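Dear H.,

Thanks for agreeing to be a second pair of eyes. The structure we're designing against is below in token form, covering all 191 positions.
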């Protein structure tokens, strides 16, 4: 068990996981990242394809550059959807919330279950992060930018790979309050 790991049942981790948007300066070491990748690759995978590949970005300047590139793209997407741009037009807003690490789950495969595999790996990774007192958050707002040729070149990601899940990672700066959930809606319950 790592220094930062806490004893937690799976169900406790599911309930404790939060999307964290406020991080300390503490950098996540590579040992911890490898443990998280181990959790990720143990997710279920259709036809046992294991289609995932990972990119790990720990350069905060680079993350800031990508954030600046991504914000207007996402603000445009919000506009098309008829939604307000929110913080995405604010010069100081960092789409990655100044987290020290961004993990990208990528794939060059195109099967119908590839995205599902990658998202299941993502949830494993985020639950494991929670059990290691790390915060995480999916950053869907960066997806369009991350999949542009410009950004792939910057990240040394070959063109044939798609970035499917971007997850920021870091040590939480304070508590993140729990979010509300609707009750599960059951449309059929057979005996
Ligand atoms: C596909 C997906 C995309 C998301 N994109 C963003 C994002 O771009 N920025 C962000 O701050 N949170 C993002 N989130 C996090 C959600 O806002 C968050 O999961 C939700 O508000 C519930 O909060 P909780 O995860 O702490 O329970 C995303 C979550 C998912 C599943």
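And this is the sequence the design step returned. I haven't edited it by hand at all.
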């Amino acid at each position: 068990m790592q220094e930062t790991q806490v004893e937690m049942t799976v169900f406790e981790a599911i309930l404790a996981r939060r999307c964290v948007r406020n991080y300390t300066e503490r950098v996540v070491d590579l040992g911890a990242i490898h443990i998280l990748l181990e959790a990720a690759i143990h997710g279920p995978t259709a036809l046992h394809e294991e289609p995932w590949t990972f990119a790990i970005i720990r350069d905060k300047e680079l993350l800031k550059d990508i954030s600046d590139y991504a914000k207007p793209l996402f603000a445009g997407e919000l506009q098309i959807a008829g939604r307000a741009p929110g913080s995405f037009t604010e010069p100081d807003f960092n789409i990655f919330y100044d987290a020290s690490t961004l993990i990208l789950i990528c794939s060059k495969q195109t099967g119908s279950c590839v995205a599902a595999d990658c998202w299941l790996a993502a949830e494993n990774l985020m639950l494991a992060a929670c059990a290691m007192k790390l915060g995480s958050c999916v950053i869907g707002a960066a997806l369009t930018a991350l999949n542009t040729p410009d950004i792939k070149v910057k990240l040394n990601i070959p063109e044939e790979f798609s970035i499917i899940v971007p997850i920021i990672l870091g040590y939480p700066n304070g508590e993140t309050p729990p979010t509300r959930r609707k009750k599960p809606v059951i449309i059929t319950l057979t005996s």
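Two observations from my side: The first strand starts at residue 53 and ends at 57. The domain at 10-170 is CATH 3.40.109.10 (NADH Oxidase).

Warmly,
E.
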